[in-house]
Amino acid sequence: MQVRQVTEEQLHGLLPHTLGSTHFEGLGERYEGKVRDNYSKDGRRLVVVTDRISAFDRILGTVPLKGQVLNRLAAWWFERTSAVAKNHFLSTPDPNVLECVECRPLPVEMVVRAYITGSTSTSMWTHYAAGERVFCGHALPDGLVKNQRLERPLLTPATKAPKGAHDVSASREEILARGDITAAEFDRAAELALALFAAGQQTCAERGLILVDTKYELGVDPSGNILVIDEIHTPDSSRFWIASTYAERFGAGQDPEPLDKDFVRRYYTALGYRGDGEPAPLPDDVRVGAAMRYIEAYERITGEAFVPDMSPPLPRIGKHLGLP
Question: What's the CA gap between 147 and 144, in Å, rounded?
Answer without folding.
Answer: 9
